[in-house]
Every structure is written in structure tokens, then in C-alpha cells.
Design brief:
22 helices, 444 residues, mainly alpha
Amino acid sequence: MDPAEAERLLRASLDQAITNENFRVASAAAGALATLLRDVGRLREALDLTGQMADYTRRAGAGPWTQLADQIQRLQLLARMGQDQQVLDEVGGLLAQIDELPSPRAANEYVDPWNIRESILSVGSRSARALREWQQALDFNQVLLASKRSRGASAYELAYTAYNDAMPLIRLGRLDEAERLLTACQQAFEDNDDLDQLSNVFTARASVEGERGNLTGALAFEKTAIRYAYLRRDPDDVAVDHYNLANFLGKARTDPAAQRAHRLAAALIYQLTGMTQRLSNACTVLASELRAPGQQHLPATVPEVIAVAEQTEGVKLGELITALAPDPNDAAAALTQILDTAASMPTGQDAAIQKHLQQWEPVITSTVAAAGGDRDAATALEPALDQFAETQDWAALVAVLRRILAGERGEHLLDGLDPIDTAIAAQVLTRLTSPPTTPGQEPQ
């Protein structure tokens, strides 16, 4: 009801618990605060807090199952930020780790082992879907559903979990199976007044109709989805619906201004909440759209984007952007950066290069920040570069990135790199040599 007051109370509780050396309460308060920050889109702050929470949990003397709960919250945040490959890489190790843990709940455990196992499977399934590993996502989810059935989960909970099979089924071309699943899930969610999941169901049903070539049906379902999403105002879900609506409008070719507004709305939310990989995907698509003819009169400022996007029933983009960026100059600067990034992307890149650019986006962003003088970014970046430097595939690229960090600039740095390394290094150089301008400032 009042996130600002909730944050104040939680921070006061956390400070008092630390003062009293009551680390069990400190861990609980930090976890609740991280959840609150996540829900309002402050993902980086939430991620930092999970590291503190893990320390409090250890100092409280909690058992290994409870400590794993902190790791799961961290993985969930990384997934929200688009770091899905990192999540998937860690999930396998966590599943192997829990196989070695005792199943009975010890006195120093404050979680149920089945809950930890199911949470790991759930975040693994989500990241597999994000990486388009469709069969792996189905496999994770089937094990998860089996666990829920074995402990007698309700029909609603089973429907909630089964819904996650919809997109893999769609992408694998199993449209009739997907439609049957979604129809059953929609009924379960309507029976339980679950607005959030109803938004997701309508998004998925739009995808089914889109795959069938029924754009009228797809647009109708997606507009219903975004209306439900704004009732909850979860930034992740809202951004997905803006992005999908832009896709269907692009295919329909009936309203280019609305298509541009919804695409930029999605990118803005991704930028303001730190979802870097999803932002990279949006900029890649936007780069192609910017080069299409007749683009000069489409929305290109925050007020224009808001005005056009809010012509869709139920959309309250202005309120959401204000919540994420109270200073209008911050939102304007974010949009300028998005447009400049998209405009600077080279054309004609093949799918493999695009995939690697998306995967390297966090490193690209950190390198640009570090080269610009951000010491925290430089400190966080160094271990990643060390790891990549040990592999034959990336050693040459890392060497160039370190020369950039040392102050070198110029296209000569790209000499001798393969096409993928060239695209990544060129993206760093482009952002450094052509920085976005901020309203009220002259270009550097």
C-alpha cells in the first residue's frame, strides 16, 4: 500500500537488529527489504542486499537449507536482471548440492527442504525459458510439477506451475497443447481472482494466435494482457506486454506511432530497472526499426511515448516511469541513451553475433562505466575479465578491453579480432566515443 513507509520501517528494523546482534531478525528484515526493492524495480539495490542477508543468516547459525534460501533469492534477482546464463550455470550445482543434504529438518533450519528444491527448479525453468532452451525448461517444470503433486499441492498451485509450460510448447510448435493448457489455466486464475497470472495467460494466448497468423486475435489478447498488467504494475510484466504489443503492431502495420511508443516504453522500463539483457534485446530490435522508412515523425521523447502508449486502454505509463525515475531528466536521459545505442548498432549482423552481443551486454556496460571513471564498476569487472582471459575464445577480446580501460581509443584496436570480438569491442568504443547527451547539456 505504501512502499516508501514499508522501506523506512524495514530499514529501521534492520538497523536495530544489527545493533542488538540479533542476526536472525536482521536476515529476515534484509530479505523482506530486498523483496520490496525488487517489486518496485530497484533491482541492483536488492541484489546488493542479498549479499548482506546471506552474511546475517550465517552469523545467525542457520543450517545449510536456510542458507540456500538466500542463494535462491539472489538467483531470482539475477534472472530479473537478465543474467539467465549465470543463473542456469549455477542451478545445476545447487541441485547437486541439495542431493547431499539431509532431508529431515534440523533445529537450526527455518525453511522446508522441499521448498528449497522446488524454488531452485522454478528459477532454473524460468532462466531456461529466457535463454530459449525450451526442452530444458519443460524438463525442469515436469520435475517441479511431480514434486508438487507428491506433496498434495492444490489445483490452483498446479495450474500456476503448469502455466510455465505454455511458452515452450508454443515455441516447439505444439500450439493445440498450449491452447488447452492456457484455457485450463485461465479458468483456474479467474476462479482465484489472480490478476497477475491472468495478464500472463492473455499474453501467452496472444502468442498462440500470433503463431497461427491471426493478428487481430493476437492484438486483442495482448491489449487485455497489458490492461491486467497495469492493475498490478510489476515493471517486468508491464515491460513484456509493451514489448509484445509492439511486435504485433509491427506485424499488423496499422499504427507505427503506437508500435514505436510501446517499443520505447519497454526499453525505458528495462533501462530504469537495470534489466540489461532484455534492454539489449529491445535495442537490437529498435535498431532495425529505426532504419525503416518513415520514422522521423514517430514518438522520440518521453512525453510523446507516454501520450501515445496511454491511448491503449488501461496503460498508465507516466505513473510507472515517475515511480521508477522521479526526476524527469533521468527518464529523458535514459531514453536518449536507448535511441543513441540503437542508432549506433551496426547493420547486417548475423544471429550468432547478435546472440553474443546480448550475452556480453553486462560486460559491455560495465566496461563503458569503468572506462568512464566508475571505480565500483571497475572493481566488479576485473574478476569477470580474469575468467574470460583464461579461455582461448575470449583472450584476445579481453586484451583489447583492457587496453580500452587503460585509455586507448581508435579503430586500430579492432585489428586482428574475429567478427564476434570485433562487434563486442566496437560496441564499447561506440558508446565511449559517442556518449548520449543529457537534456540541458551540450554534447561532449
